[in-house]
Design goal:
A seven-stranded antiparallel sheet has the order 1-2-3-4-5-7-6. The N and C termini lie far apart (60 Å). It is globular, with a radius of gyration of 20 Å. The protein has one domain. It is built from five helices and seven strands. The protein has 168 residues and is an alpha+beta fold. About 13% of the residues have low confidence.
């Protein structure tokens, strides 16, 4: 009986180790050299974009990182890694009004973004509906969260914004 007990414990331990390799954290899934995070943890989001000037009350985001460095996987020719971020940032009214005021005072040409770019597959139905009913000529200024020279887009809604950031 004791032998059966220890065999069962060993099997469960090994099984949990295999699952740990697949999942880095509770909200991150790793498959090969690709890690995908779906989270609402703003402390994790703050490592990806600058949210110090306009701090959201809460957020939801999807971050995909593809490690092409060749350090963990055998790649014949290592190269630069790629990353993609999609996020919804929710703000209180005062913070969002400050963001809009600063945005509209910025000297920034209209990039004519397509709202379909912001129609993320994981969006809540209410946010998706608001996006689909929003003004198609509207756009956002990415420098406030992404910094100068970073490839990204913003789309402002009612007290929230949608954000896309990608490596070249």
């Amino acid at each position: 009986m004791t032998k059966l007990f220890w065999t069962l414990i060993l099997t469960l331990s090994l099984s949990s180790c295999e699952q740990h390799d697949k999942k880095i954290e509770s909200d991150t899934v790793k498959e090969g050299n690709k890690s995908t995070t779906l989270s609402s943890d703003t402390s994790k989001l703050s490592k990806l974009i600058d949210i110090t000037s306009f701090k959201p009350t809460h957020a939801k985001f999807k971050y995909v990182f593809i490690d092409n460095s060749g350090q963990k996987e055998r790649l014949t020719v290592p190269g630069p890694s790629d990353s993609y971020l999609q996020a919804v940032l929710y703000f209180d009214t005062a913070t969002f009004d400050q963001l809009k005021t600063k945005y509209f005072n910025a000297d920034y040409s209209s990039p004519n973004f397509d709202r379909q770019d912001f129609n993320f597959d994981w969006l809540d139905p209410k946010v998706r509906k608001e996006l689909m009913q929003s003004d198609t000529s509207y756009h956002g200024h990415p420098d406030y969260f992404l910094g100068l020279g970073v490839k990204g887009k913003l789309w402002l809604l009612d007290n929230k914004l949608l954000l896309i950031k990608a490596t070249d």
